[in-house]
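Structure ticket #2291
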Amino acid sequence: MRWSRYRQDGKDVIGIWLNGDLLRLDALDQPPSLDLLLTAGPSLAPGLYRRLRRLSGDALLNPQDVSFLPPVPGRKILCAGLNYHSHAVETALPPADFPNLFIRFSDTLVGHRQALQIPPVSTQLDYEGELAVVIGKATGPLAPKNALDHVAGYTIFNDASVRDFQFRGSQWTLGKNFPATGGCGPVLVTADELPPGASGLSLHTEIDGLLLQDGNTADMIFGNL
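Resolution: structure written out below.
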């Protein structure tokens, strides 16, 4: 299953992608909540698809007219820095023995096609194309073999960084948390549609048609479980 969130009439609404079309989930009687989609999305898909097909064009949206939001609200955003072997080589740093984690806050996120904001105090806003892992089920300590059972799906994320503030101290939090500096989405793809751990996916970043990053999720230092 694939879904997007968008803003309509002052409300946050969910749209389901079906055969390339974006369909309004709120066009259904008793649509599932976002929490239910996160915990049980793939099992809901057949019934949702049947119900949405019956609505014909009544539920159809034009993606060009939609103001996209990040596919899920940013309730808790944990990021792993320097998590690709190639990136470690690029920075001349040895691969870490433990994930280098930092946090981002929800007001740093913007949706697809929304402009990132360059902070007026900086000239060093930098791109970082990343894979975002969306946790769907509450969890505590887990054995690695069970960790992927709690992943609802994946989306893409531009973890843009304000470099001159990021490297002013030993912690990266300051440079990662200026408002509207992280682009997320537009689509969440449920885990059943991708290889385990989303391994082996091409990940690249372009600006004005120029390829600036070209990597693969199989290159993660802390990735597949």
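Closing remark: The mean pLDDT is 92.
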